[in-house]
Amino acid sequence: MPSTEQAADRATGQQEPSKSRWAAVAAVTLGTFLLVTAEQIPIGLLTAVGSALSVSEGTAGLMVTVPSLVAAVAAPLVPVLVGALDRRLLLLALMGLMTVANVASALAPSFAVLVASRVLVGVAVGGFWAVASGLAVRLVAPANVPRATAVIFGGVGAANVFGVPLGTLLGEFSGWRIAFATLSALALVTLFALLAVLPSLAASQPVRPRLLAEQFRNPGVRVGILATFLIVTGHFSAYTFVSPALQKLSGIDEGLVGPLLFGFGLAGMVGNFVAGAALARNPFRTVLTITVSLAVAMPLFLLLGRGPFAGALLLIAWGLAFGGVSVGLQTVMIRVAPEAVEAASSLWVAVFNLSIGLGALVGGVIVDSLSLGAVLWLGGACALVAALAIWTARTNESLR
Asked: What's the Rg (C-alpha) of the chain?
């Protein structure tokens, strides 16, 4: 049975880190925080951008759709294109690209130029996340890998809880161009932080198309990819419409939706770190528990969340469960593909991003053609099928 230490060694092709580089972990976390904030901040700026550049809000939504789709393509493609390039240099280059992209967004004279700049954001998001998601094995001692992975993914939760709302407020008070310019300045700060503390990260095994294809012959990777597709698609098919669900199903006033979503995000951050601690003890049981909790939480919201208090409570429980998804599934990918962490992680990031867009699309079709409650049943059903898929992997020793 492969130990965590052996997994780390094979993932890097080198000896395990002589010491844990928590400053580097913190810098990478800052990077994930910035990237997710940059990817999602247009959600709160659609009206302002549409008005300024004479496009509809629906068209302005391309600022969110385009980088998500580009990130899904860039996640496996960037590691292939850069070959054996030192991953430190790659991360620095991608953060530099993010800096330039947001300058271009802030100065865009037309919507076409703005969308083009968002393509660059998608490349930076996909490439950076593909490398950063499996970086913990390169930066900390093996015993600390789950905790470091949780810290890195804590940047994603922090972006949803703090980054996007604060960026939206900045855009409302100072203008959407100032919001993008501020992102560019923060990207530059992150670039210098990475330059200061990130060690050399030689690519011991360059990612080639053949190596990506080989991952699908690994049963553990197949289960991880399938579970990711089901969980993320199901979650976003329901969560995209959580605001009308809170108002129409739970009778919650519109003015309380924002604070409750903030609570959802905080619960997600707690779930991320709780899962990180539990994964160090038993990865299989932890991921299965997270998935079953989601399978229960979404339909339960529909069945028992018919009052404001119950609806708010179940929303927090939902957030707590979903908060552990990213760190849990990424840990699975690290453990089932210890000799090809970057290749497996890049596929995982691609599927994750595609599933976000697909979930929102499918959810919209279902809400329009069936009902609001149907997306909650779909979310629960997807999570249940994912739990069954994960259960089939219970004999995989690398998950123990």
From this structure: 20
Smallest CA-to-CA distance from 343 within 194, 178, 211, 161 is with 211
Read off the tokens for 298.
């979404």
DSSP state of 346: H
Are 255 and 188 members of one domain? no
Our count of domains for the chain comes to 2
Asked whether residue 204 is domain-assigned, the answer is no
Task: Give the Cα separation of 355 and 86 in Å (integer).
Answer: 30
pTM here is 0.77
* Dist CA 242 CA 265 (whole Å): 13
Beta carbons of 134 and 11 less than 8 angstroms apart: yes
- By residue range, what is the domain housing residue 270? 209-399
Place of tokens 């899962």: 275
CA 111 to chain centre: 26
Taking only the tens place, the pLDDT of each residue in 10-65 is 444 444 565 678 999 999 999 999 998 898 888 777 778 888 998 876 688 788 77
- Return the H-helix or E-strand segment holding 146: helix 145-158
Examine the domain organization and report whether 227 and 102 are in the same domain: no
Question: Please, are residues 204 and 342 in contact by the beta-carbon 8 Å criterion?
Answer: no
Look-up of token digits 């929102």: 360
Q: Which of 28, 4, 9 is nearest to 149 (CA)?
A: 28
The pLDDT of residue 4 is 38
Which of 162, 197, 232 terminates a domain? The answer is: 197
Using CA of residue 337, residue 341, residue 227, residue 315, what is the dihedral sign?
positive
Give the burial string for 323-334 (b: 16+ CB within 10 Å, else e): bbbbbbbbbbbb
- Give the integer Cα–Cα distance in Å for 32 and 349: 13
- On the CB side of 78, CA atoms within 13 Å amount to 32
Cα separation, 280 vs 30, whole angstroms: 23
